[in-house]
Amino acid sequence: MSNLLVVIGITGQQGGSVASLFSQEPGWKVRGITRNQSSHSALAWTSKGVEMVQADLNDPSALPAAFAGAAALFVTTDFWGPFYNPQTLSLLKEHQTLGEYCSDIELQQGKNVFDAASQIPTLERIVVSSLVDAETLSGGRFKGVYHWGGKAMALKYLRESHPELAGKLSTVVMGNYMGNWLRDLKLRKTDAGYRLALVGSGTTPLPHIDVERDTGYLVRALLECSPGKTVLGAGEMISWCEMLRVWCECNEVPLAGFDQLSIDQFERFVPVPGLGRELGEMFAFMDEFEYAGGDANVVLPSEVGYLLVCSEYTN
Fold it and tell me: Domain holding 236: CATH number?
């Protein structure tokens, strides 16, 4: 009889990677959680033979049934969905920022998932995709990295409220998406070549990962280890300056250099309200405190028996 892995966020990059690997893995069966079983993404998984169950992380009543029979659970929560939803602005409390609201929503999603998971007697393992608490690890200097904070607070809730479930926990601190070099990073083409402008020095080694390819392998490595591991989602530890050099070499274009910005400068360059400050503080934290904030409990993939390499992704 196969072990059941329930994947939250199966239609996203991380969950999709986990489902793709484990649906082909001997001894495993995958069940995906989706808000809309009729969506194109959900139907694509159904066509591959993956069981799809409709449930919303914001509705805790549906989650115990969705998790029923699971031996393992992969968890992602959603900050960016409400952040980019225009209707969210009408839901803000007085003096509440968009980032604060979305962080609160993500924290509540985590609480709902962990409350439900604690009721599943068959559950042996839970793997959570999370990030560190930038505010705490910076001594309160970077309070506005809300898309990290909600995830970190949800894990704190898990450990404090469900210690038995926390004993089954492994965590992935997901690094920078390599796919951003194809989509979201805005390189500037000058007469001398390509330039990249971000907050920070650009010289701090940071984790970069091919999320769609490698998340599933990280989760498998964690499930093959005893619980309690926190692994950094890193294909390579490489600085922004070095990544820019590799990108230019792979694409056979000239390298012009890296421009260091302040948070205020970066915020002015980002047209989405609130996003520039959010990401600017994130980049500043990573540059000064490193991606995991110096947390010695966060280990590289090689320490859980898996080696990732992804520099070729920039080509």
Answer: 3.40.50.720
